[in-house]
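Morning!

This is the sequence you dropped in the shared folder:
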Amino acid sequence: MKYYLIAGEASGDLHASNLMAALKEEDPKAEFRFYGGDKMAAVGGTMVKHYRELAYMGFIPVLLHLPTILRNMKRCKADIAQWQPDVVILVDYPGFNLDIAKFVHEKGICKVYYYISPKIWAWKEYRIKNIRRDVDDLFSILPFEVEWFAERNYSVHYVGNPCVDAVEDWKRQEGSSEKPEKPQIAILAGSRRQEIKDNLGMMLEAAATFKEYKLVIAGAPNIDEAYYKKYIPKGLEVELRFGQTYQILNESVAALVTSGTATLETGILRVPQVVCYATPVGKFISWLKSKVLKVKYISLVNLIVDREMVQELVADRMTKENIIRCLGDILPAGKSRQQMLDDYEEMNRTLGGSGASKKAAQKMVELLKIRK
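The structure's back. Tokens below.
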């Protein structure tokens, strides 16, 4: 069968590539065509566009690059119509992908599957109407989404979380359980320049008050070393490493993490953490969060267990003093450390075991064969 996949950023490229590999096992004659990245290209098929030409985040960048985005969308629609796949598989990236789903549905070209749901349970809940209308099947990677969508009369398939697979694969291939001589704290300041600008300096200043610990920054793959150095306080001794996030976490006794998938990966690796997310005009953002967001928490670890097992220092709550207090509580001998480790076990049981990509691929192929 012919599979057309669309992933708009680095994490989507990773998860889509694993799904493609699993689809090849289920369907040896699988043909792939995609908007994606290097990891998807390594599996095989034809790359139409690299996600680097799609990944514009935030109102201003999107506005500035709107002509490019619209050209890419137009080309994608024409390419799908010309290639006539058996299914279009959308991977997160809702601003682009929901428009593609609408086009494919209206034209009656093929089935539309969504792998890794848009986070409409956090905001933009109105998009459920588009999903009901345009998406044939949604494959969820977060267990609480099953009930959330069911309450809104839409049934989804929970297949497990691919982050579990990614961590397990890393452990098998290169994971090391050795700890460095000097205990270390991991600093994960986000994958976007604005996040690093807003968070890194304060995270380092707070962590540096614990003199007995080495500080290690896990560098994002798309950010250069020079950019990080702009926000490292002068005179502070800190190590910056790229392409080793799991290894850095595994070596560390605790972590400061800017919210995102990294909070979940940190939890899967059982590293106590504090979530740090500073924003400009913090008080206004805190007020806006209370009015706009539909969820109590911003980190996936807390959303999965439905309580604040990890401290979230967001907007005006993120101060140097709060980071120091919360980090001290989860370092060895800290009063909250063991409880967090126990909570991680509950979270990991809720997620289920590895094999998300395989489960998703099996279900997709099964459904496609039934409906052909």
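Headline: The two ends are 10 Å apart (CA to CA).

More detail when I'm at my desk.
O.
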